[in-house]
Design a protein that fits this description.
84% of the residues lie in helices and 0% in strands. It has helices spanning 2-69, 71-92, 98-119, 128-134. The chain starts with a helix and ends in an 8-residue tail after the last helix. By secondary structure, it is mainly alpha-helical. The protein is built from four helices and no strands.
Amino acid sequence: MFCLFKNIIFLGWLCGVLGSLSLGLVFWSVKLSADIAVLTSEAAVQVVKHRKEISKVLAKARLRRVVVMMPFAGAGMGAYFEERDYQVWKLDNPNGSRRDYGCEVALVTADLLDEFLAEIPNFLNFSKNSFFNRISRCSSLE
């Protein structure tokens, strides 16, 4: 009889431990699910935020292109945009000259030239070699 009582006590204790572990795991999984939901919503907000920032940059670039297409205002605005970009570059490169800035811009442009040439119409006949001939003096900066 004592052996049966001992087995019942052990089985009761085992059921209690397993039940409490199960409840703990349920609460832990609910907490993790809530954390995942919060992180997912934060990630979605960040995606929308960055999408808006990218759209702003693209809209500014489009506006620059439109303004520069106007004959007189375009020349002035083009010079203004370049001067502003130069001043931003000058903050990062205080010892740099306008020639250094021009060469850096030309080298970056050369990297993107293939994509640009693929997008422009063929009748413009812009040669990649003519561009590289003009920036050959800048190759010493690399």
